Amino acid sequence: MKKLLYISLLTTLLLTGCSEDFLERVPESSVTSGNFYQTEAQFEQAMVGAYAAVRDAKGSIAAWCMGEMRSDNTHLEFNNTNRGPAYIEREYTDFFLDDVTSTLVADKYNRCYVGIARANSIIDYLPGAGLSQQVADRLTGQARFLRALFYFDLVRYFGGVPLYLKAVSGAGDAYLPRSSVEEVYKVIIDDLKDAIAKLPAPAFPQTGRATQAAAKMLLADVYLTQKNFALAETELKGITSMGFALLPDYASVFSLSNKNSRESLFEIQYQQGNQGQNSNFLYPFLPLASDVSKITGITSQNRQGGGWNVPTFEMIGTYEPGDKRLEASIGIAEGTGVVGDMAIEAIKSPIGYVKPTGKRAYPFIKKYLHPHSLEQNTDDNFPVYRYSDVLLGLAEALNEQNKGAEALTYLNPVRVRAGLAPSMQTSQTALRDLIAHERRVEFAFENKRWLDLVRTGKAIEVMNKNGEYIKAFHAGESYLPGTSYAVTQNRLLFPIPNREILIGKLQQNPGY
C-alpha cells in the first residue's frame, strides 16, 4: 500500500511539473502562510493563537515555579511517593538547584518563543494584506505588545537571548546568536512605543485584549527594571487618566464576576468548559490529599497533583495586623494524616491561627478559589497587570526620585483599600522598604515576587535568609539537599536550555 501511494504521488508530481508556475503555486487544499494571511478574519484567528501563547508562557507550571516558588513567598509539600523527573525539576527550581537539562526551564523558554513566532507572522504579513490602516494598526499594536511581553520575560529570566524579529522561513533564520541584554531591551521598548501609538485607549467593559494602557504599563515595568524612574513615572501617570480604579474590596478583584474589571490592565483569559480554555492552577496549590472537596466542593483526589506553591508561615507573618489581603489570599486546610495524604477536616482563617496539637496545617493560595463544576476545570483568569501596579509603580518611581510626599498619594490608596492606615513615612529608605512590602502582599501569588527581588537587588540576601528559615522550619526532614538555597549572583538567571546550546551553539549563562 505504501509503495502504491508513493508511485501515485510521484506521478502526480511529474505531471504537475509540466506547468511553468508549479514552484510558485500554493497548495489549495492546505492552510499555509501563502494562502492564510489574507483577510481580516484570518489575521484575527492568528491573533487568537498569539494570545493563547500568553496562556502557555505566563500561565503555565513553569510560570509559578520560576516566578513565585523561586521566591520567599512559597515552598512545597514534599511528595515522597512520586519521584518522577517533572516533580524533581519543580523542587530543584525552588531549591536553586535547577540545571541546563531542566525541561521545566526549557518549557518557559520555548513557550515564549512560540508566542514570539506567532506575533512575528502577524507583523510580517500585515503590510501585504491590503487591510485598512485602522485594522492594520490595531493588529500590529497587539502583536508588538505581545512580542514585547514575551521578550521581557525572556530577558529577565535568561539574560540576553536570540532576537527573532521576522518569521522564520528556513534553516538560515532559525539559529541566531544571543543578543545582549541592552539589545533585547531596545527591541522591547521600540515595540512598546509603536504599540502605544497604534493600540486603542481602554474601553469598559474590557475584552481582555491589549490596550494602550497595557502597553504603557508594560513599558513602565521595563523602565522600573532599568531604574529609569522618570520615564516610568511619565508612562504610569498617563494611565491614571484612562478610567481605571481600585475595586473597593481586595477579594472581589479575583471574583469571577470581575474579570477584566476597571482594576485590570491585562490578564490571561480562561473559560471553564470543554473547549480546552479552562484554567486549573488552583489544584496544584492544594494539599496532597485523597479528597480536597472540603476546599473545592468537588470530590477529587489530589495525591499526585498538589503540594506546590505553598505559602510559608513566614509569609503569613509579614502581613500587618488588620490587612484584609491576608484572608483574601490565603486559607489554611486543617486536618490529620501523613505528609503526602492529608485528611482535610476544616478550612481555617490564617488570622491569628495556632495549629492545635495533633493536627496538620497546610496554608494554600485562596485568591483563585471560586465555584466550578468539574475538577481541574476552573474559570479563573490570571492577573498580569492590575491598577495597583500603576499606583505602587508610581510610588516607587517617585520615591526613587526623592519625591516621598508625592509617592504617598499613590501608595496610600492601596493600603487604605487593604484596611490599613495611610503611611506618613517620607524617608526614602524607609519608604522604599514599605513599598517593597506592599508589593509583596498586594501581588502575592501573582508571579511577581522573584522578579521584584532580582530587580531591586535583594534576591541574594533575601533568599539565603529564606533558605535558613526553610531548613529550620523543616528540620529533621530529609528532603532538602544540603546544597539547596546557596544563592549566588549566577543564580539570578536561569540556564539557557541545553538543547538550545547544542543546536544553536549559544553561550551558556555563567555558573551552569
Description of the molecule:
Among the domains are: about 40-200 and about 470-505, Serine Threonine Protein Phosphatase 5, Tetratricopeptide repeat (Alpha Horseshoe); about 290-365, no CATH class. The longest helix has 26 residues, at about 135-160. β4 (about 330-340) and β5 (about 340-350) form a beta hairpin. With about 500 residues, the chain is mainly alpha-helical. It contains 20 helices and seven strands.
SSE blueprint and pairings:
Blueprint: H1 2-16, H2 33-36, H3 40-58, H4 61-69, E1 74-76, H5 85-95, H6 103-125, H7 133-158, H8 171-174, H9 181-198, H10 212-225, H11 229-239, E2 264-268, H12 293-296, E3 308-311, H13 313-317, H14 324-329, E4 330-338, E5 341-348, E6 360-365, E7 382-386, H15 387-399, H16 404-417, H17 428-442, H18 449-455, H19 459-473, H20 498-504
Antiparallel strand pairs: 1-3, 2-7, 4-5, 4-6
Subcellular location: Cell outer membrane
Main location: membrane
GO cellular component, one term: cell outer membrane
Short description:
Helix content is 47%, strand content 8%.
Following the backbone from N to C, one meets helices and strands in this order, namely: HHHHEHHHHHHHEHEHHEEEEHHHHHH
Mean pLDDT: 92
User: Could you say which structural class the secondary elements and strand pairing correspond to?
Assistant: mainly alpha
Low-confidence stretches: 1-29
Approximate helicity band: 40-55%
Keywords: Cell outer membrane, Membrane, Signal
Subcellular location: Cell outer membrane
Protein name: RagB/SusD family nutrient uptake outer membrane protein
Family: Belongs to the SusD family.
